[in-house]
User: Which sequence fits this backbone?
């Protein structure tokens, strides 16, 4: 815990800029932390999401991906009724997006409770427990799911669904099953854009989606 605080203090004191995004450039992590109080109402204090995936996990997603999605919500290229009152120019001006996106992408959740020694207080344990996040195992044909994942998804979403270093494509490991299943239905119907959606998702059987989810649920331990 102490380590975490030192780490965030160091982060708060630096300000990074995105060379590619010169017009909006400045990242202010203190501002990001402040904006996160609004996001936390739904996505949780540590951006861990909740309500069984009604609110997706955001912690650790690539900053560029978060920025892109927030912009898609603002322009309504991606429809999101619950976020409508928050993702608009008045509440979230474009120049604030890199700060909140970078803040959230740097939040690290862990999938296992660490070992405690006798000095750890109950309060410290409680704080750490809040950041422990593990996707429940999903019933389904894990072998088939793995095969499908390797053939059709790995190229972009990375080995074991962990995403790829430097890529803006979201990792799938550690994301809520119910949320991803919902997104796949949106891809299949065209409600949300996804590359090659027609080939990848339109003819996917429910058991196949279930199989991919079963496989992905084994990858975050
Ligand atoms: C009132 C609830 C609510 C609030 C507040 C909220 N969100 Fe969301 N957010 C949602 C819901 C619901 C979804 C999932 C929409 C869907 O199913 O497609 C979502 C999805 C997202 C996604 C897409 C994640 C992904 O994996 O594609 C991002 C990024 C996001 N929100 C960022 C934010 C940020 C940043 C804030 C604060 C400025 C915020 N949200 C505030 C409800 C909320
Ligand atoms: C050509 C690259 C590519 C391939 C192949 C691919 N994806 Fe994606 N996927 C993406 C990108 C890029 C996004 C983000 C889309 C956006 O901008 O909204 C995405 C988003 C998703 C999301 C939503 C994640 C979130 O946090 O909202 C899911 C779920 C998903 N893909 C599942 C799959 C599955 C399952 C497969 C294999 C059957 C697959 N994808 C194959 C590139 C790919």
Assistant:
């Amino acid at each position: 815990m102490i380590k975490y605080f030192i780490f965030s203090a160091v982060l708060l004191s630096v300000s990074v800029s995105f060379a590619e995004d010169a017009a909006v450039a400045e990242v202010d992590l203190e501002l990001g932390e402040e904006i996160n109080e609004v996001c936390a109402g739904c996505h949780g204090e540590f951006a861990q999401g909740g309500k069984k995936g009604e609110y997706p996990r955001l912690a650790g997603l690539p900053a560029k991906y978060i920025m892109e999605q927030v912009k898609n919500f603002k322009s309504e290229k991606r429809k999101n009724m619950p976020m409508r009152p928050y993702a608009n120019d008045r509440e979230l001006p474009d120049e604030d997006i890199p700060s909140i996106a970078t803040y959230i992408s740097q939040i690290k959740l862990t999938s296992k409770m660490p070992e405690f020694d006798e000095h750890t207080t109950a309060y410290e344990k409680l704080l750490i427990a809040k950041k422990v996040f593990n996707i429940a195992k999903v019933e389904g044909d894990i072998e088939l799911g793995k095969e499908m994942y390797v053939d059709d998804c790995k190229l972009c979403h990375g080995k074991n669904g962990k995403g790829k270093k430097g890529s803006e494509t979201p990792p799938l490991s550690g994301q809520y099953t119910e949320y991803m299943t919902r997104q796949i239905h949106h891809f299949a119907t065209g409600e949300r854009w996804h590359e090659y959606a027609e080939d990848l998702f339109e003819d996917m059987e429910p058991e196949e989606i279930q199989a991919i989810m079963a496989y992905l649920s084994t990858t975050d331990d």
Observations:
- Confidence is low (pLDDT under 50) at residues 1-24.
